[in-house]
Amino acid sequence: MEAKAPEARVVRSGQPRIMGNVPPKNPNFTGRESLLAAVERQLTEDETTAVLPHALHGLGGVGTSQIAVEYVYRHSGEYNVIWWIPAEQESLILAALAELAAGLGLEVGPQANTAVPAVREALRTGKPFDNWLLVFDNAEDIESVRSYFPNGGPGKIIVTSRNREWERVATPLSVDVFDREESIALLQRRARGLSTHDAGRLAEALGDLPLAVEQAGAWHAATGMPADEYLRLLDERRPGILELAPSPDYPLPVAAVWDISRHLPGLLHGAYAFVGVAGFWRDRIGDRAADPLGLAPFRFALRRLQTRTVLRTLATRAALTGPGCRLVAGLTRTVDGWLREPVDGRAVARARAAAAGHRVEWRLRNLRCGDEERAGLGAALRTGAPPPPLGQPLLVPASERTHWQDVRGALYLRPDSALDVTVADIGPRAASVAAPDAASVTVARGVRPRATPPVRADVLLIRGESAAAREAYRERWAEAPGDPHPLAGWLLAHTALHPGHRRLLARPERFAAAVAAEGPEVWEHAAHRLAAAPPPV
């Protein structure tokens, strides 16, 4: 793929002819000048640049996506077409490419099986537009993402990822944490009046991780908390938002991505971050320029639900200081006001379903009942005895937990575009998506495995065909016994058919313990048994 000569490019006008799905420019972007120059240099020399984290061994928060965003806005006038593609899930890639087909004016329908190959061919030939730039953001699965690259053509590709295996197939650009001077500059930009000395102390405690520095600056600006008190919180607190890790459309809060050997922001910091995310999407509802795919209503509805859950947990279970109580009260007033704001009813319903589904599967994958409670639940199912009292759930040991992507939750983001895609993915891979000319990539040991595609039952559940989904999840369990995904899906489908059984979703690990020694043929009996007999507390 050869770049166009400079004289053939569009005159710098500040905007390309077609630009879509690009996140808003960050007004607080600081430093990174050498990295931005390196992106420009590498794109001049090669067709694909992979922006990767450096020295953090796969941890997020170093700002790879922010560098790509800044590059796009600084060089927007140099390209005819710029398209940002969320690449965490194949369904999101396909939805973005289908939108690009419409933007290019291609005479194809919205279905991915016709739109995607048409887009790839248009980009390969440079018709109707050459000199394009695609950004595949958060592209962890190399094989999957590369299959959507155009096979040659007059354009460039940027990939942002935590997967360092991209170094084998693209020109890498490693992104490290901030220099100390960059951390101090960002902290003082966000928190006016913060001294250079205190900013340096905060930067050191935060490891100069850009996402942590950004959140700390916003926190200080909002609360005025002295640096000494903030540093004490970093020493004493540990993350408590494990259950509320967000869906794939947004990077993890800093509390969830730091190595345990570092200082960790706690629940208060996580709550503040959640409010900021919810407000970000609230401001973009109805703004087609900032939200060309119309996803803001769903994202806002989802984030305000998750944020309210965090705040409720803080208010009822956390030992807060006086300033902490005042902060939680203020954030709660804000979010309660947002919950009263009208949002598209379909988006709200999807957000509720996505939040419930994520919570159920997270608990099944990460929590288990104690031995005594587990034995009592099994006995209750076999003998008809009362279920045992609710016990304190135990965290599954880290060695037994596996990487998990919420593929079912991702379908709620774009159900209109994703359904056709997922139906095709149930069988052999969609023939419309041809593999690139390069040889296929072998995933090395220690690299995240290929994302599991949604199963047929997921599609049925999203469509509202709960009875058929319930049966399909049972069949899926027979194919993959012990997989929490079909068990969680079955519970979601079952409670959609039996709303009175929704109590099962609060502690799904109890249901899993009750049926652990049984097959899926007893699941319905177990659900009726456990839902009908509330356990003593």
Describe this structure in words.
The protein has 537 residues and is α/β, with parallel strands linked by helices. It has three domains: 6-175, P-loop containing nucleotide triphosphate hydrolases (Rossmann fold), CATH 3.40.50; 180-286 and 296-341, no CATH class; 349-435 and 451-532, no CATH class. The protein contains 22 helices and eight strands. The chain has helices spanning 33-45, 64-74, 90-103, 112-125, 142-146, 180-190, 196-205, 210-223, 227-236, 254-257, 267-282, 296-317, 322-339, 345-366, 371-383, 407-413, 415-426, 456-463, 466-479, 484-497, 508-514, 523-532; strands at 18-20, 48-53, 81-86, 132-137, 155-160, 171-175, 367-368, 394-395. The model is unreliable at 1-13, 52-59, 237-265 and 417-452 (pLDDT under 50).
Question: What overall geometry do the principal axes of the alpha carbons give?
Answer: globular
CATH topology-level fold name of the largest domain:
Rossmann fold
Largest sheet: 6 strands, parallel
Give the assembly state of these chains: single chain
- Count of the domains: 3
CATH class of the largest domain: Alpha Beta
Separation of the first and last Cα atoms: 66 Å
Model regions low in confidence, pLDDT < 50 over at least 5 residues = 1-13, 52-59, 237-265, 417-452
How would you state the average pLDDT, rounded?
Answer: 75
The CATH superfamily of the largest domain is known as P-loop containing nucleotide triphosphate hydrolases
Structural class: alpha/beta
* Strand line-up in the sheet with most strands: 1-3-4-5-2-6
Number of strands: 8
Order of helices and strands: EHEHEHHEHEEHHHHHHHHHEHEHHHHHHH
Q: What is the C-alpha radius of gyration, as a whole number of Å?
A: 24 Å
Proper CATH architecture of the largest domain: 3-Layer(aba) Sandwich
- Helix amount, in percent? 40-55%
Q: Count the helices. How many?
A: 22
